[in-house]
Amino acid sequence: MPGIFYLWLLWGVWVLGTFFMERNKRERFFLSFISLLLLITFPYVVEFKDYQIQVPAIILAIICIIQISKYSFLEKIHLLIRYITVSFGYSGFLFMALYDPVWLIVEKKYMTIIFLVIIIHLLGFKDLKKMMVCLIISVTQGDIIYSVGLERLGIPTVIGAPDTLDTLALSSLVILMVKGFAAAAYYLESKQQFGKKQKQI
């Protein structure tokens, strides 16, 4: 079922925010409310001229735009360059998969996730929040480019369709896992170094 990974991830975030986070944390209400809103609006699509847009894609884009507005001018320029790079790379990857799918080693969805995770990490983000904002905005923008191209070919499509939301959810999950493993490795290494210094003393 298209969108199943997206739904499961959001359900997990909602459970985490509602039942496991401390009540006095500001992020608790935001995570619970947004995840629930994205779950409720999942089946809905709005039409704009000749295009159809999945409602969760609009909500995610608005959240990212609000977050970007808080950055400095220089940070906005850096993020703009990065998200243009990722969005054109993402849409180009989708067009290549459409016109010549023979080169795909595994299913397109998983190849797309691998591509997104690699290119996002190559851009050298240090801040996880900026990395996630860039991912969401880039995939949304790239999907718009891809949908406009298909529309001109007479192929109807939905911007931010369930398959795209799955790609976004799984890419986010992989990035979080990579960051988590890196943090755990750094902690263990620091602890090991501290232990060696203690022995030397």
Q: Could you characterize the architecture of this molecule?
A:
The chain has a three-stranded mixed sheet with strand order 1-2-3. The protein has one domain. It is globular. Helix 1 (4-20) runs antiparallel to helix 2 (26-40) and helix 4 runs antiparallel to helix 5 (108-122). A hairpin with a 2-residue loop joins strand 1 (45-48) and strand 2 (51-54). The protein has seven helices and three strands, in the order H-H-E-E-H-H-H-H-E-H. The chain has helices at residues 4-20, 26-40, 55-69, 73-99, 108-122, 128-152, 162-200, and strands at residues 45-48, 51-54, 158-159. It is mainly alpha-helical and 201 residues long.
Short description:
76% of the residues lie in helices and 5% in strands. The protein has seven helices and three strands.
User: What is the count of helical runs?
Assistant: 7
Question: How many domains make up the 3D coordinates?
Answer: 1
Note the main sheet: 3 strands, mixed
Shape, per Cα inertia axes: globular
Key words describing this protein structure:
three-stranded mixed beta sheet; mainly alpha; transmembrane; membrane
Topology, please?
Layout: H1 4-20, H2 26-40, E1 45-48, E2 51-54, H3 55-69, H4 73-99, H5 108-122, H6 128-152, E3 158-159, H7 162-200
Parallel strand pairs: 2-3
Antiparallel strand pairs: 1-2
